[in-house]
Amino acid sequence: VQLVESGGGLVQAGESLRLTCAASESIANIPVMAWYRQRPGRQRELVAQIASGGLTKYEDFARGRFTISRDNAANLVHLQMRHLNPEDTAVYYCAADLDDGLGWGLGTQVTVSS
């Protein structure tokens, strides 16, 4: 399955963005879809994940500000991000839990100015 992220951009602190991950095939049977991010000079880190049944998990920095959702019928996964701050500046990647490991998109850049 191929994953394509969109929705990134340049925003000011306090603003919101909605990222979208479009999959080339059905995601209905993919157990977990997730968003990761890689900040400048840092390792890639999990942001949030969502199971096929809708159960979600958030990292501490995302909980309460970010919302992950999936539309299995449309093969889409979204990440709604609110109250963004400069520390959220990163490349955001969509990931799929596939049989042979994680599948990745190419990422979308999010830049938050102070």
Protein architecture, described:
With 114 residues, the protein is mainly β. Helices cover 0% and strands 55% of the residues. The protein is built from no helices and eleven strands. The strands form two sheets. Strands 2, 4, 5, 6, 9, 10 and 11 form a seven-stranded mixed beta sheet that branches. Strands 1-3-8-7 form a four-stranded antiparallel beta sheet, with no helix packed on it. The radius of gyration is 13 Å and the shape is globular. The termini are far apart. 32% of the residues are buried. The mean pLDDT is 97.
- Can you count the helices? 0
- Characterize the largest beta sheet: strand count, sense, and whether it forms a barrel: 7 strands, mixed
Let me know the number of strands: 11
Compute the CA-based radius of gyration. 13 Å
Q: Termini, distance in Å?
A: 37 Å
Give the helices and strands as they follow along the chain: EEEEEEEEEEE
Structural class: mainly beta
Amount of helix: under 10%
Low-confidence stretches: none
Characterize the overall form: globular
- Portion of residues in beta strands equals over 45%
What's the overall average pLDDT, rounded? 97
In brief, what are we looking at here?
The protein has 114 residues and is mainly beta. 0% of the residues lie in helices and 55% in strands.
Q: Could you name the key traits of this structure?
A:
mainly beta, 7-stranded mixed beta sheet, 0% helix, globular
Topology:
Blueprint: E1 3-6, E2 9-12, E3 17-23, E4 32-38, E5 45-51, E6 56-58, E7 66-71, E8 76-81, E9 90-98, E10 101-104, E11 108-113
Parallel strand pairs: 2-11
Antiparallel strand pairs: 1-3, 3-8, 4-5, 4-9, 5-6, 7-8, 9-10, 9-11
